Amino acid sequence: MVVAVTNQKGGVGKTTTAVNIAAALAFHGKRVLLVDTDSQAHSTKSLVVGTDKCASSLYDALMSPNIPIADIIMKSTVPGLDVAISRISMAKLEPSLLGQIDGHFRLKEVLEQVRGLYNFIFIDTPPTLGLITLNSLVAATHLLIPIQSSFLCLEGTDDLLETIDKVRKVANPNLQILGVLITLHDNRTNIAKDVVSRISHVFGDKVFKTTISKSVKIEESPAYKESIFTFAASSIGAQQYQKVAQEILERAKN
Question: How far, in Å, CA of 223 to CA of 221, rounded?
């Protein structure tokens, strides 16, 4: 299963979700690859030590047929979880691919080299609907959409759904929504409860039963290059992401 974690709205916990769900599934004994497509490289910085030892990054694997993706995959601090590392050079990818006949398919082609080695591949996407995100939607079998439970949470959702429909019609007809995850949730406020109701109205049973609360521990863990499960194993955030991973495992059976 190849899952693109995507939402063009920034600040919704997309990288946090990609990192911690990937880690949770690795702790379940699954072989997991996390693909960092964002030029900010936050997934890479959250989990990988010594990236300077790797001469290349995902940009190089996507642009050069002589650099296999295996060359830019590094072990993370989580056993069973590997990371296809990113660097600031990813910012050059979109201009480099513009006009290329296979520009939308580069990531799919590269991931085919290692897809059989992993139970799950998660793609952490940038907060845009540009060519990099489009590559991720073409490469994915499923989408996981994090949405913050705030007043402006659904802003841009129509654009995302329209893009998904276009990708299905042109390049990836079997693309499915694995689930919608409500993040940065504060159950004490009426507005948050109202937003959850609106999200459920739009996405129905695609919304995960588990929500992710605001958490200082979750925010702190990347600084120590750890997932929430080793940084604060007994925290509410760890328990919630563990429950989401269980829901994903159940949905993956269907």
Answer: 5
The parent domain of residue 71 ranges over 2-253
Q: What is the pairing mode between strands 32-36 and 120-124?
A: parallel
Q: Quick check: pTM over 0.90?
A: yes
Mean of the pLDDT values across residues 10-34? 92
pLDDT in tens, 134-184: 999 999 999 999 988 776 766 767 788 888 899 999 889 999 999 999 988
DSSP 33-65: EEEE--TT-HHHHHH-S-GGG-S--HHHHHH-T
- H or E element: which one contains 103? none
Burial class (CB in 10 A: 0-12, 13-18, 19+), 16: buried
The CATH number of whichever domain residue 188 belongs to comes to 3.40.50.300
**Total number of domains constituting the chain:** 1
